[in-house]
Amino acid sequence: DSGVTQTPKHLITATGQRVTLRCSPRSGDLSVYWYQQSLDQGLQFLIQYYNGEERAKGNILERFSAQQFPDLHSELNLSSLELGDSALYFCASSVSGFGNTEAFFGQGTRLTVV
Amino acid sequence: AQKVTQAQTEISVVEKEDVTLDCVYETRDTTYYLFWYKQPPSGELVFLIRRNSFDEQNEISGRYSWNFQKSTSSFNFTITASQVVDSAVYFCALYPGRRALTFGSGTRLQVQP
């Protein structure tokens, strides 16, 4: 168990809908990262939050947004969903950056858009 | 720009064979970190190792060993006496000290009984 908790584990929704994925980081970790794993794109970095503030942005679509709350949990919001958004979404947490600690990932949320 | 290349898409071995997974990286940073992760069929990403750019010592952990060679920008992973439970996709990743991990495309390892 990595200590990073993601809910839900599976999500099936229709095109055009909006969903929210949740991530609880390991105790003491201030940084949260979101990744998308799809068959054609591999593991892509979406966004990082550090202590409530956006720290870095990767290949995140405008239809997607995220936030980190005062209790440090994070939510990834995906809207106007398309079939191509079907993927495994991972959250990772670390104390600050990945350099000073191992980076642990949650079990992922498998999103299926039908 | 950061880049991680895992040229081997899929490797199939028979149990008890040794297998090496290759990883080549590109970065202009002088300080960086390299990682290996395992993704079993169940889907989670399991952390295996983290190595910083100043430490070129090889590391061994049980049947796993890692060979870091800065001169060739490689961080290869060897599994000795492979087992069926080693079947998974293995990812090499690079962290240049900012932003986030850049992953390679992964190598699918199949260990046949």
Give the overall form of chain B: globular
Q: Strand-residue fraction of chain B?
A: over 45%
Order of H and E elements of chain B: EEEEEEEEEEEE
Radius of gyration of chain A, whole Å: 13 Å
Shape of chain A: globular
Average pLDDT score of chain B: 93
Structural class of chain B: mainly beta
Largest chain interface and its two residue counts?
Answer: A-B, 23 and 22 residues
Mean pLDDT of chain A: 92
Please work out how many helical segments of chain B DSSP would assign: 0
Q: What is the makeup of the main sheet of chain A?
A: 7 strands, mixed
Give the strand content of chain A: over 45%
CA-based gyration radius of chain B: 14 Å
Number of continuous helical runs of chain A = 0
Task: Give unreliable regions of chain A as ranges.
Answer: none
Distance between the termini of chain B: 41 Å
What is the chain-wise order of helices and strands of chain A? EEEEEEEEEEE
Low-confidence stretches of chain B: none
Explain the overall architecture.
The complex is a heterodimer of chains A (114) and B (113). Chain A has 114 residues and is mainly beta. Chain A has no helices and 11 strands. In chain A, a hairpin with a 5-residue loop joins strand 7 and strand 8 (74-78). The mean pLDDT of chain A is 92. With 113 residues, chain B is mainly beta. In chain B, 0% of the residues lie in helices and 52% in strands. Chain B is built from no helices and 12 strands. Chain B has strands at residues 3-5, 10-14, 19-21, 24-26, 33-39, 46-52, 59-61, 64-69, 74-79, 88-95, 102-103, 107-112. In chain B, the strands form 3 sheets. In chain B, strands 2, 5, 6, 10, 11 and 12 form a 6-stranded mixed β-sheet that branches. Chain B has a 4-stranded antiparallel β-sheet with strand order 3-9-8-7, with no helix packed on it. Chain B has a two-stranded antiparallel sheet with strand order 1-4. In chain B, a hairpin with a 2-residue loop joins strand 7 (59-61) and strand 8. Chain B is globular. The termini of chain B are far apart. The chains are: A mainly beta (114), B mainly beta (113). Chains A and B meet through strand 5, strand 9 and strand 10 of A and strand 5, strand 6 and strand 11 of B.
